[in-house]
Amino acid sequence: MSGTKGDRGRRVVLWRHGQTAWNLERRFQGSTDIALTEAGLGQARRSARLLAALKPDAIVASDLKRAAATARELAALTRLDVTHDAALRETYAGDWQGLTHDEILARYGEQYTAWKRGEPVRRGGGELETEVADRAAPFVLGHADKLPENGTLVVVSHGGTIRTTIGRLLGLEPHHWEGLGGLSNCCWSVLGEGARGWRLLEHNAGTLPEPVLGDDV
Fold first, then answer.
1. Are 136 and 88 spatial neighbours (Cβ–Cβ below 8 Å)?
2. Which residues are annotated as a binding site?
3. How does pLDDT run across 18-75, given as a tens digit for each residue?
4. Is the separation of the CB atoms in 188 and 48 below 8 Å?
5. Binding site for substrate, residues?
6. How many C-beta atoms lie closer than 10 Å to residue 171's C-beta?
7. Which domains does the chain possess?
8. Residue 5 has what pLDDT?
9. Catalytic-role residue among 90, 127, 129, 202
10. Nearest residue to 14 (alpha-carbon basis) of 160, 164, 190
11. Is 0.85 topped by the overall pTM?
């Protein structure tokens, strides 16, 4: 899947929210609305200063407060309005939400293992990863299509939602999405539009992307 317009050179920066208390406790947050810690707010401020240097044209964000608070830091520097939408929320994971990693393994070990194998699993009775991509990826593409040539969109969302969106935009089969790996708090991935659609330029980055020099441009 790629953008529908012919413009090239557009970028989509997918930025994960800052740290929360549940991140520290290794609790599965899902769609539970958890606030940033003070450290998480500091992460957002530092990252926003870097991302502002990309001179984004638009910012969209999950309406959950951890993502909204992260986006607000970039909006304050760029003077851009933020469009919030539930389409960018983290995966709803039903009975898994609020449980620690160890509790999930103890209670839902087979389900967890099947998910890690790349099988379609409704974790805790919640959403499939493909369903998350079905809501998030079209929303991101819709806003990317509004960008000017060489424009940049910043998407402030959640680790699982970002991974599934990247997988969908790159055209990867769902069982390969886990291979993208996770994002640290307030790190981001960058997709660039090329001749054959979207390509992954940066993943789990905490510094601004550098030009690619060499034979793989």
1. yes
2. 16-23, 66
3. 999 999 999 999 999 999 999 999 999 999 999 999 999 999 999 999 999 999 999 9
4. no
5. 16-23, 66
6. 11
7. 11-91+125-205 (3.40.50.1240)
8. 45
9. 90
10. 190
11. yes
